[in-house]
Amino acid sequence: MLVSGCAFTSVNRPNIDANQSLVSSSDFIRITPDAAIDAAKSALQAMGYEILSVTPELGQIRTKERRVLISDTCDCGEWNGEKISGPALSSLIVRAESMGDNFTLLKIERSCCCHFIGRNIRGATTRDETYQCGSLGSVENACWVTLREILDQRAKN
């Protein structure tokens, strides 16, 4: 009875905004929105993300989903007292908003989703769900570092 009860417990999903204080989601950059979008596109590609769409009129870039390890980049909660691990899908949206005089507010939004399958001791599936995980901030922080490196290199040229 106890084993069967554990096998059917729900996933203890994280608060997806719990780590937001660790993540820098926006910054002001002294370049045009078009230049910011171009630099952000290069940064995302340098990080291994494939660009899904670029919409200059909206100042927006969307990436395709990319497989990442939950333990490195996401908090997907716990099941039966164990941290959920394995692969997740990560994607980013970057938005550039003109603040006038070649000044741009750049925002990074990240999504991390996992497909969790829980099994009982006999191997039968007792949980099968896809849900949004919380970010640990590592991808966003890497994006800012890569973006600043690209902007520094472009400023030298």
Count of spatially separate domains: 1
Q: Quick one: CATH class?
A: Alpha Beta
Overall 3D form: elongated
**Helix-and-strand structural type:** alpha+beta
- N-to-C order of helices and strands: HEHEEEHEEEEEEEH
Count of helix runs: 4
Mean pLDDT: 89
Could you give a short account of the major beta sheet? 7 strands, antiparallel
Share of helical residues: 25-40%
Q: What is the tally of beta strands?
A: 11
Q: Could you explain the architecture of this structure?
A:
The chain is an alpha+beta fold and 157 residues long. The protein has one domain: TATA-Binding Protein. Helix content is 27%, strand content 39%. Strands 1, 2, 3, 4, 8, 9 and 10 form a seven-stranded antiparallel β-sheet that branches. Strands 5-11 form a two-stranded antiparallel sheet.
Quick structural overview:
This protein is α+β, with helices and mostly antiparallel strands and 157 residues long. The chain has helices at 2-7, 33-46, 70-73, 138-156; strands spanning 26-29, 51-55, 60-63, 66-69, 74-75, 78-79, 82-83, 87-98, 104-119, 125-132, 134-135.
